[in-house]
Amino acid sequence: MNSDRGKPRPAAGPPRTINVHKFAESRASELESLHSIVKERLSNDFKSQRSKRRRTTGHDNRLAKSRVRKKQKSGEDNVTNLDHLEKDTKKLPRHVRRKLELTKNSQNGFSTSGDGTKRLRTHLWHAKRFTMTKLWGFYLPLGVHGRGRGSRALLKNLKGGVLVHDASYCRAVQLEGPEDLLLSILETVLVPSPCSHCEDARSDILSGAIYGSAELHHVGAVFSQTIAPVTYMWQPQQCRNTDTKVDHANICDEQEKVDGHSSLRRLWVWIHAAAFREGCNALQNACERQVDAAGTRVSCVSLENHLGKLEVMGSRASQLLQKMLHPSTCSSVNTSVLKYASYIENDDQIPSSAIFSLSVDDPRFLDKDITNASEAKVQDILSYKKDESGRNGTPKRDMKLLVCSFLEPEGSHGLSECIDLWDTKKDIDPPIEENILCMEKHRQRKELFRIGDMSTGRQHSSIERQFNRFCPLLLLRSDSKKTSIIRWSIILPLSWIKVFWMAIVTNGAQAIGLREKHWISCELGLPCFPREFPDCSAYSCFMALEEAAYDKKSELRSPHTRTWKVPVPSPWDSLRLAIEALNGAAHGRVQHEQLLPDDMIRNIAMNSPYLRSCKTEKESSCGAPFEGFVARTCNVLTQFLDEIKGSHLLLFPKVLHSKKCIGKFMKDERILNEDADGVIYQINQDQKLCLVRVLLHAYREGSFEEGAVVCAPHIDDVMLWTTRSEISKGDFQVPESFARSCFSQQATGKWEFQVPEEPAAKESCRLPIGFITTGFVRGSKKPVAVALCEAVCLARLREEQWKAVGDRKRRKEIYVLVRNLRSTVYRVALASIVLEQWEDDLECM
Questions:
Q1: Cα separation of 359 and 492, whole Å?
Q2: Kind and range of the H or E run holding 118
């Protein structure tokens, strides 16, 4: 049987060869008809139409990219030649010029945009990963892209990792002159001044071992307008050794005596960018006044274009710095090197606010064992490992490269190594440029694989600039008494910021912006400038920008989804209403009468027409701060209490050193029974408000937002909440109409507290005594809010609550009511006064 039966036979394929002439003759009629049709359509015009021409490689943009690369390369070559740029009539494209400008690492100053806004040295790195905002004259990283979430992961990394923030927008002012004149200047503008510290702390600050924190004021009294919190540090007194090539004879002679005064000293005052101009002008005015009085010159110079600052924080911050910072052998900083080496391994032994002056190696030089790079050979520069398969000579990707000393200019070795960061008169050489390092690494790899012309050897690049591979810096340890998180600040030249930034990030640190920094400050319980400084002009300017951004965002919403408007800058002047209510309540308490809120308001209206509207007169400057101040030291709070004759107020700024003192006062019935006939509550109407910073914890439930109002509860409210196990929301709720209209914006732009007229609103109305400046942070295990409250009102509430309960049930915390501005429900919170826990509240982020 044939097996191929039934299967289809394959068709015959085309012939292997075709005769074109025979094929054309057989198809001649078809070709002629096709030609006639085309001829008719083209009107017998067979010329190529230019509008219809298309290149066969038009879809491929590789040629265009190569041309762009050539232009960029020619532009990079021409940037170094300034004469060529002046003669070049054709201007380079903007993206080329911008890239060249951002990649440059100038020795001083910041690069600026077209409108004069400055860019950080890490601007290019941040712009690719963060949302940028224009603030305080800089382009600053606001936070990671998104809706502003991620606080839970951030706090987790804070406790188990390392965070880094580029704070180069903070700038320094240098004061140089006789020591006694510098101390007299600081005494007029700083609170507290260096002379007000104890003997040990004062000697450590003056010697340059630790830095000091204070508030910068305008020249005047203690309660003058605050400018900003500052950090100041003194240059160490010892002269640099004479074994270096720098001539120190003149420097040491200048430091002996100046016009019969004390030794010549140098001082740095670090000011936030939001208040730098105002602070620099205040210091210059103070120096001019001292010059006129003493006849000796005290120089005041801004260092805004010379120094930068990096902030490193986290539980593993010290380990990262120990891994990255390798002090070089420099005789001028041997003392700090020994201290740094002895302390860095034991974080607990590092004193608070310590300063280490170091000269460290370039962190890009991975091989730290070779001290003299000029003696290193090629085989010592490159380190190899055997391949997993056992083959030799295969380089790994993680090979360690060390750039030889031929990249350093002649004569720079040994001189720049021993230059101290305080030598601002000498220009510190910038680090070796990245493209030079890459070229040298590429050359070394070619030598390794025997590629290229080996006879050429090393080619000395013709570089006019001098580079250095040693960087002087100051390492500052933040105060570790108030927080358990380790925080370091690195002060170094601006030209070295990018090098150390990349080294810190590549070693595992997470970069943060302004938003994340605000979360961390709230988690640590530290104030954040300028959000929590309403007595500064920088606060008014910052909140004006916040209000404009809020209004712009609200306009984008549809009318039916738009919420009612709330005051973005908190109306601090409305707190005077509670002060006057206490005055009326004091008279009623003497007569054993209890006034309702509407009676208090009526009493205020009869006694003080000025406070009936709960606001001050409109000042000429729209950015003027409110009429008051924030007490951030125990001495300032004590002076305020003495000025108003309020020694009977239950505030304890003096008893911080003994933990049992507050408990002793809590059990002392004699203090509570003292009746001053309302004298301690009769505050002068013209007296400034005294605010203190408090930490708020929710009593049972609730989440507090930024801008929420802190109200004074009645004693019945506190007793009702603390005694009952279940509380309905109606017991602590206000009508929605009152929540919408309790703060109204006037034609002048200021917000006022409106007295309710409805009976239900009057019954539930509670007078404001403060506002929350920082709300709860999402993801925090112990959520805490930060608020500024009036000190006299807090003392009054504490007295009422202590009198209502027995000795054993009294608490150091004060019960207050908190209501979010878009909510109708009051929440009970426990307020802890910061100045009752620490001597000062000066350190901020």
A1: 10
A2: strand 118-119
Specify whether the CB–CB gap between 162 and 204 falls below 8 A. Answer: no
pTM for the structure as a whole: 0.76
Query: Could you give the C-alpha distances from 10 to 13, 17, 781, in angstroms and in order?
Result: 9, 20, 80
Q: Quick: pLDDT tens for 471-492.
A: 888 999 887 677 778 899 999 9
Q: Is 762 helix (H, G, I), strand (E, B) or coil?
A: helix
Residue 529: both structure tokens together = 């400038």
End-to-end Cα separation, the chain, in angstroms: 98
Rounded distance between C-alpha atoms, residue 650 and residue 792, angstroms:
9
Three-class SS of residue 517? helix
DSSP string, 275-338: GHHHHHHHHHHHHHHHHHHH----EEEE-TTTEEEEEEESTTHHHHHHHH--B---GGGHHHHH
Q: How far is CA 452 from CA 32, 446, 459, 472, in A?
A: 63, 7, 13, 39
Q: What are phi and psi of 331, to 5 degrees?
A: -70, -20
CA-CA distance, 345 to 337, in Å (whole number)?
Answer: 13
Which tokens in the block code for residue 733?
Answer: 């709720």
Q: How far apart, in whole angstroms, are the C-alpha atoms of residue 733 and residue 711? A: 13
Region 586-598 average pLDDT: 38
Tokens of 364: 């890009």
CA distance linking residue 735 with residue 759, whole number of Å: 11
Q: What angle do CA 703, 704, 705 make, to 5 degrees?
A: 120
b/e per residue 243-269 (b: at least 16 CB within 10 A): ebebeeeeeeeebeebeeeeebbbbbb
Note the pLDDT of residue 345.
58
CA-based nearest residue to 771, from 596, 608, 626? 626
**Among 203, 270, 263, CA closest to 238:** 263
Q: Which residues, other chains included, contact 442 with Cβ-Cβ below 8 Å and sequence gap of 6+? A: none
Question: Taking 90 as the threshold, does the pLDDT of residue 76 lie above it?
Answer: no
Q: Which residue has the tokens 């298309």?
A: 54
pLDDT in tens, 528-546: 999 999 989 999 999 999 8
Domains in the chain with CATH codes: 171-237+264-306 (3.30.70.1400), 537-582+624-844 (no CATH)
Give residue 426's pLDDT: 67
Mean pLDDT of 653-680: 58
Question: How many Cβ atoms sit within 10 Å of the Cβ of residue 622?
Answer: 12
- What lies within 8 Å, CB to CB, of 818 at 6+ separation is 696, 702, 704, 708, 709, 710, 711, 772, 785, 826, 827, 828, 829
CB atoms under 10 Å from CB of 61, counted, come to: 10
**Considering the chain, what is the average pLDDT of its residues?**
75
Side-chain-side CA neighbours of 92 within 13 Å: the count stands at 24
